[in-house]
Amino acid sequence: MPAARESLLDAAYTALANRAWAAVRMVDVAAAAGVSRQTLYNEFGSKEGLARALVRRETDNYLAGVARALARGGAPAAGTRGDAAARVVAAAAWTLRTARANPLVRAALTGCWGDRLPTPSGASADRAPLRAARSGVPAQRAASSGEGPLPGPAELVGRFCDQAVAALEPGWPKEELPALGSVCETAARLTLSCVVAPVATAAPEPGRVPAQRTRPEAETEAVSRLVRGAFAQLPGGTEPGDGG
After folding, report:
1. Can you give the three-state secondary structure of 7-42, one letter per residue?
2. Closest by Cα among 231, 228, 224 to 199
3. Residue 79 contacts by C-beta under 8 Å, 6 or more apart in sequence?
4. Tens of pLDDT along 30-58?
5. What is the largest CA-CA distance in the chain?
6. From the CA atom positions of the chain, what is the Rg in Å?
7. How far is CA 26 from the centre of its chain?
8. pTM (2 decimals)?
């Protein structure tokens, strides 16, 4: 991506952090990026085009982070359910962190854009169910072009699932690939549920000192427990929290 285009997207994201998108002016974005307003229009065509490019960049960066989390440590050895669960937990934790920090990613994941955010045409609030996982082979979801529809919740969760299967498939028992696809889809859905409905910190039991946990820590612990529980349902799976 040309430096000017990247600088313009950075400037637009910074402006959005300080004011509602409706109040963001193209001339101010151009000035903050150190380019002319004509350059901005040459790159994106309109404010709508800028919004679409900004949403696409942020969601692409989110998915790249999912892939990095899943790739840590290389391909898992056959039967290492605990390692597989840990990789998906890392991707789920990245999802929660990114959704908390990045309002555009959160909106794309949930379909809830709000008044302060851009709602570019093609930004989907689709909550259609994911395709049933019939095999361990990830769906061939081609990367959307700049002119194609922006990813909505079902697309992003589906790509999370696909990336998880692709990362875990090498070395996995071939006869268990369908089960792996199903559990990765379950893990993806559980992760999205924690984004849509953040976990509240529970009140301590009477007579017990409350644990000093932040809400992000509680959310990460909850999604970890859910994902590990899903992997424990695999044939020969481990108990939640078992690293082996």
Report:
1. HHHHHHHHHHHHCCHHHCCHHHHHHHHCCCHHHHHH
2. 224
3. 173, 236
4. 999 999 999 999 999 999 999 999 999 99
5. 66
6. 20
7. 28
8. 0.81
